[in-house]
Design goal:
By secondary structure, the protein is of the alpha/beta class. The strands form 4 sheets. The protein has a 7-stranded mixed beta sheet with strand order 12-13-14-11-10-15-16, with helices on both faces. Strands 7-6-5-8-9-17 form a 6-stranded mixed beta sheet, with helices on both faces. It has a 3-stranded antiparallel beta sheet with strand order 3-4-18, with no helix packed on it.
Length: 458
């Protein structure tokens, strides 16, 4: 895949970039090692001040960055601005709380281990490689970069090849904010070079957000090298609706949860599991609202859904829908690729799904909803848990006991009750099963790339 900005609204190539040669990659690795050594010795308060300065830069660049995100991957401009704002908020949150998150933890009764004092302390690992996707080209990176740099690590970014402008912006951001040269650098390289980087002794750990096959490859290479890895992979999140909830609110939230980022989000709700007593009313409202969405130019403030980011992504999505309809699925709205330029796909809802359809077990990365009718909460959980993924989930119920039951029974890294799945700096983010392991953000996220060192003192 070429390293290039290709506008998904038109399919036209905007700009291409040359991949770095081996000498440039070596130079950047060496700079990262030097920066990691400096960051390790830099007081946490200083690292936090640099991060706040970086947040100020991003905030000042908001309009330019939003347009860049929209041009590179088709995100509606209003959502692109929201992504930039989210990055700024997370950077400031991490900076404001890093000292408490990395504070030493004394053992309450050190004499129990024969010591006068005993405690644990967090120390950085060194240079961490981040392999990142295009769908949230700034946010996905920032939720790794902010805590990793604040913890005293240096970062190397292998970004998706279709968002090179985002990669190069991040390449200079942190040095502009005062971080030592080499603290965070982008590597414009093909994916084929990732395994070699992980094996390099200068790389201490790796994190990836991406597809399940890519995650398996990274985990295998990191495992052989005995290096820490964090995997945030695919998701096919359930959105469960039980009787007694406000269906207007639930259906409106369900639409937003499905088509956010043009439906290209790991934690977008993809499977809507609806109790039979309210199924017809919910589906009527949901499909009507899907049909009312404005599909068009993502630079237009009125647009709800823009194009998919890549031509291959639209083709893969269309194949899932075509497979389901060929096997008898009902198309309630959408379902056809229109004429004209760009990689647009209409908001679509499918029902009457059977286990032989690919969309039942595979991730639909675009604005396509799979709707299931269930008779009770046990069947709802069975359907929700039947995929290999387990990233996030949502359940709508008015009953506190039922809510608690779903929280226990759902196989997922998160459960959102009477709301939609979202990521934030305050909460740990990650999944189970084929959705990966490890966590980003929250207390757990900043600790992922630290050495937890126990200290015993006589």
């Amino acid at each position: 895949m070429p390293i290039a900005t290709i506008d998904p609204t038109t399919g036209q190539t905007v700009k291409t970039f040359e991949a770095y040669d081996a000498a440039e990659v070596r130079r950047r690795l060496d700079r990262a090692v030097d920066a990691a050594a400096t960051l390790r010795e830099t007081p946490i308060a200083q690292r936090a001040d640099w991060m706040r300065a970086a947040a100020d830069i991003v905030e000042n660049d908001l309009d330019r960055l939003a347009r860049m995100l929209t041009q590179e991957m088709g995100k509606p401009i209003t959502q692109a601005r929201a992504e930039v704002h989210k990055c700024v908020r997370a950077m400031r949150f991490e900076a404001d709380h890093v000292e408490e998150l990395l504070a030493d933890q004394p053992l309450a009764e050190p004499d129990a281990v024969g010591a006068s004092q005993a405690w644990t302390t967090w120390q950085p690992l060194g240079v961490v490689l981040a392999v990142m996707p295009w769908n949230f080209a700034l946010w996905q990176v920032m939720r790794f970069a902010a805590p990793a740099l604040l913890a005293g690590n240096a970062g190397l970014l292998k970004h998706a090849s279709n968002v090179p402008q985002a990669a190069l912006y991040l390449d200079s951001l942190f040095e502009r904010a005062g971080f030592p040269p080499g603290s965070f650098q982008a590597l414009l390289i093909p994916s084929s070079q990732v395994a070699g980087l992980i094996q390099d002794d200068r790389i201490a750990a790796v994190t990836i957000t991406g597809s399940e096959p890519a995650g398996r490859s990274v985990a295998e290479t990191a495992g052989k090298a005995i290096k820490k890895s964090v995997l945030e992979l695919g998701g096919s999140d359930p959105f469960i609706v039980m009787p007694g909830v406000d269906l207007d609110t639930a259906s409106s939230t369900a639409v937003r949860a499905r088509v956010q980022n043009n439906g290209q989000s790991c934690i977008a709700a993809k499977r809507f599991v609806v109790h039979t007593d309210i199924y017809d009313d919910f589906v009527d409202q949901f499909t009507a609202k899907m049909a009312d969405l404005v599909v068009g130019d993502p630079m237009d403030e009125a647009t709800d859904v823009g194009p998919l980011a890549t031509e291959s992504g639209r083709r893969d999505l269309a194949e899932l829908v075509d497979d389901a309809t060929a096997k008898g699925a009902d198309v309630l709205v959408g379902g056809n690729v229109g004429d004209g330029p760009g990689w647009f796909y209409p908001p679509t809802a499918l029902a009457g799904l059977t286990d032989d359809m690919r969309i039942v077990t595979e991730e639909a990365f675009g604005p396509v909803a799979a709707i299931y009718r269930v008779s009770d909460r046990d069947e709802a959980v069975r359907v929700a848990n039947q995929t290999s993924f387990g990233l996030s989930s949502a359940v709508w119920s008015p009953d506190a006991d039922e809510q608690a039951w779903f929280v226990r029974e759902l196989d997922a890294g998160a459960v959102f009750v009477n709301g939609m799945s979202e990521s934030s700096a305050e909460l740990p983010f990650g999944g189970v099963k084929a959705s990966g392991y490890g966590r980003e953000m929250g207390t757990a996220g900043i600790h992922e790339f630290c050495n937890l060192k126990a200290v015993w003192k006589a």
